[in-house]
Specification:
12 helices, alpha/beta, eight-stranded parallel barrel, TIM Barrel
Length: 276
Amino acid sequence: MPISAAPSAVCSWSLQASDPAELVTRVKATGANAVQLALTPIVESPQRWSGVFDALGQAGIEVASGMLETVGEDYSTLETIRATGGVVPDASWSATRARAAEVARIAGSHRIGLVTFHAGFIPHEASATRAKLFDRLREVGDLFANEGARIALETGQESADTLAQALDALGEDSIGVNFDPANMILYGMGDPVRAVASLAPRILQVHIKDALPTVTAGTWGSEVCVGTGAVDWSAFFAALAAVPASLRLAVEREAGDQRVPDIRAALALVERCRSS
């Protein structure tokens, strides 16, 4: 199985910490000693977050990868995120590019080799809109490649086949996939186990997150604690055997008010799947 021997990480934003000290405390409470670190707060609130690398390092917590939040994302509904997500909107592209350049600089200075983000909804058919999106993704990819980092696009906002086709058309080795099985369910974009086969050559990191499908077409599914949703984790881990890269896992929890216990449960599930 291509799962890295390195320990699973925890997504820093899942812990809703107000400063580096609180982040360290909450990471330790999960039992993890690695994070996927949200890098946008360091750009937007340097007075609060510029010391996060020192704080994590002193606590023995590894930064496994980074995350970029594009400007103006609104996840209120499927319609709002379609309009505002990723590098697609013209109105926010200039600000998103500037933020990406700063995040790339931070990634380079701290030797973070992978940064993930949502590209936005990728059209399946060739069009002027898709060509413009590809140009922007290449530009962001170059910003990070110049700092020694790769980027990985989150799954979910389009089908696995559409994303695989888009990545093939892009033809950029520096751009891969951050596979999130729950996102496939939340967006109603197919079976995550089957999706692994379509995206396997491009998967660079996996988010451990679970969800239940919507009961009302056109609305979000529901994120739930790992192991209580629709992801077939045994089958999912088996499918990851087809991925050629050595994968790092990162637990993400974006709902609920029991984040630390839920993350601990997810980490325990990962260990059971690793040892089976």
